Amino acid sequence: MDRREFLGGTAAVAGAVALPGIARAQSPELSFFYPVAVGGPITKLIDGFAAGFEKDNPSIKVKPIYAGTYQETIVKALTAHKSGTPPVLSVLLSTDMFTLIDEEAIVPFDDFIKTEDDKKWLASFYPGFMENSQTGGKTWGIPFQRSTVVLYWNKDLFKEAGLDPEKPPRTWDEQREFAQKLTKRDAAGNTTQWGIQIPSSGFPYWLFQGLATQAGAILANSAGDKTDYANPGVVEALQYWVDLAQKYKVHPPGIVEWGTTPRDFFEKKVAMMWTTTGNLTNVRANAKFPFGVAVLPAGKKPGSPTGGGNFYLSKKASKAEQEAAFKFVRWITTPERAAQWSADTGYVGVTPAAYETEAMKKYVADFPQAIVARDQLSSAVAELSTHENQRVTKALNDGLQAVLTGTKAPQKAMEEAQAEAERILKPYR
Amino acid sequence: MTNRATATIHGWLLLLPAMACLALFTHWPAVASFVESFYSTPKARRPARFVGLDNYQQMLADPIFWKALTNNLWFALGTIPTSIALALLMAVWVNDRIAARTLVRMAYFTPTILPMIAVANIWLFFFTPQYGLFEQMTGLFGASSTNWLGSQDTALYAIIIVAVWKEAGFFMIFYLAALQAIPPSLGEAAAIEGASRWTFFRRVQFPLLMPTTLFVLINAVINAFRTVDHIVVMTRGGPDNATTLLLFYIYQVGFGFWDTAYAATLTCVLLALLALVAFVQYGWLERRTHYR
Fold first, then answer.
1. Is B46 on the interface with A (CB under 8 A)?
2. Smallest CA–CA separation between A397 and chain B, in Å?
3. Is it true that A3-147+307-381 and A148-305+386-428 share their CATH fold?
4. Angstroms from A51 CA to nearest CA on chain B
5. Segment B165-221, tens digit of pLDDT
6. Mean per-residue pLDDT for B20-34?
7. In this predicted model, what pLDDT tens digit does every residue of A227-279 receive, in sequence order?
8. Which of A313, B48, B66, B110 is most buried, judging by how many CB atoms fall within 10 Å of its CB?
9. pLDDT greater than 90 at residue A169
10. Least CA distance to B147: which residue of chain A?
């Protein structure tokens, strides 16, 4: 780098630092952090939305900033918040709500709800998604890229095993029996095809929450200051999961990697898998066989956690910027755009109205598997979320992994996880 | 005298940019971490306050810290000697006149160039049960299926293998450069004396390579405490903390739990550990190293 380049670079940096200040004085510039959890064309879609919004609202400039994974995005957003210039708007995990409130990084949306129309809009979202967006009577997040856990099954392998390829398991017992029929072993006793796979790497709590909900347990209260890990239902759910692997041997032993599970499914190494609806487009593109998507089988009752990201408004942004951001959020969550977003990505449409649009009806007629996630929302619960979220969740994750790798018994592991969560959450009550 | 003063000022001025960068990005953060480790984590409503040794007591009572420390020692023990020995072996081999020498050298060096995150994603599939590369290889011999990354007994070894694969090629380059600096006359003399290949290596090449070995050793030790990218991709510290290394835990505490004070405490321990190792290496090993 010669001196001229260096000076030029310095000037550019100085300009970049100075510019937002100037822009702020004239028309609000909307910096907008968003994560890409699965990669692919999402950046293009968001850029398209931003351009469309600018066309409709020439006075506002939207600047989308792709900030990495969810984890990287919250690190960047919170670091920016602490150093004074956070993005006006960000899409972060719905479960980070308590963390963001505790850091005083966000403002509730309630102050911007003024007209009847606004109120109607706020009430238009699926209640299942709002559970993770509201606490203490306030709305802190607006659902955007949301998902749930569903069961994918390989219809060819069902046929081979003598099962009806159009009938997924509806109950825990059916799920186990089907898995037993779908598990194949060679002469030496090695398994060549597993019946079912529930991933347990990284964030096992999320998939496990499906099992726990089906067993009738609720992992945490809505105030986010108390967990119930040692509930008998939780232990029962965990026992069911371990038994699939260790007693019935229809589920791979040890930890099942989240990232390679779809590939296992494509390679026909597993006949049924639990994973996010966010994988729908991926499975559709890569599965070389007919596949079905079903709501998760019911234990005492059906159930699945929701997941994914919400819009949050920065507390440190100016009033004008917040107003502009609110306008953008309203604009992007209209039924037509929510429908387009859902069809392009596989995420769930966030409002019932989105499923009433022409575009969505056409998409669903062409690809009926897409409707399953919506059908499951009636029984969906809030994703596990508390104060000190990642620490409290880690206590559960460690316990789950210890049980799945055979180093602890379910009862003991869950009691230890509960004790740890209790220690962390006590100061918040 | 004025001349000398000007020279001194010149010297310091030349040093200044580097010094400023070092102070700003290395020394100051280290000192700040040390100071912060005696305070509580600042929260929006509760500013940081002095807590003395509370953070250190919390650390001593934290089972995950001890697990991470033990894991890290095993990781160091697994990666350092293996990658150095492998690097030396490869260097001696590609130093000879073998067919397609450049190609082999390049092949050995390739892992170093590739970004760790990308590589870890590929290794993830190597370790996949049933159809992964390792499974297919062991399957040929009729061995039963192993879930390398999904079992507490094997996950750390799997992580070690990736680190060794990544590092050995890098260290090989240093050895190769050092080997080429050894005068060929020594080899000729040894040949005339009738020394075996092993004797020549043990008595001539290896002693002359000692400075390189020291340099490589220091790098290997630092890397053993610094390489965590592949853990983020491959296991995220699991199963049940079986592959949690110290630096990964610091990241988790600092940027996952936002407990910056406790992260600073852990950082101080890591710094102290590295300082101790550096002290031993420079103070003791260097005196036993033969420089030409």
1. no
2. 7
3. yes
4. 32
5. 988 889 998 998 898 888 888 888 888 888 888 888 888 888 888 888 888 988 898
6. 90
7. 999 999 999 999 999 999 999 999 999 899 888 899 899 999 999 999 988 88
8. A313
9. yes
10. A254
pLDDT in tens, A393-412: 999 999 999 999 989 999 99
d(CA A346, CA A284) in angstroms, rounded, equals 10
Residue A21 clears pLDDT 50, i.e. is over it: no
Q: What is the CATH number of domain A3-147+307-381?
A: 3.40.190.10
In whole angstroms, what is the distance from residue A139 CA to residue A97 CA?
10
- Establish whether this prediction's ipTM goes over 0.90: no
pLDDT at res. A401? 93
- CB neighbours of A356 closer than 8 A, spacing ≥ 6? A335
Instruction: Report the pLDDT value the prediction gives residue A396, as an integer from 0 to 100.
Output: 94
Q: Identify all chain B residues contacting A102, using CB atoms and an 8 Å cutoff.
A: 43-44
pLDDT score recorded for residue B214 = 86
- The structural domain count of chain B equals 1
Report the alpha-carbon angle A309-A310-A312, nearest 5.
135
Q: Contact A376/A296 with Cβ under 8 angstroms? A: yes
CB–CB contact A405 B239 (8 Å):
yes
* Closest B-chain CA to A102: B44
Domain that holds residue B238: 54-288
Residue position matching structure tokens 């897409």: A370
- Binary contact (B147, A402; C-beta < 8 A): no
- Strands (E) across A101-229 are located at 106-107, 134-135, 138-139, 142-154, 184-185, 191-197
A183-204 per-residue burial string, b: 16 or more CB within 10 A, e: under 16: beeeeeeebebbbbbbbbbbbb
How many residues are there in chain A? 429
Cis peptide bond N-terminal to B239, omega within 30? yes
- DSSP helix/strand/coil, A272: strand
The closest alpha carbon to A316, from A98, A63, A93, A82, belongs to: A82
Question: Who contacts B258 (Cβ-Cβ below 8 Å, separation ≥6)?
Answer: A78, A99, A103, B41
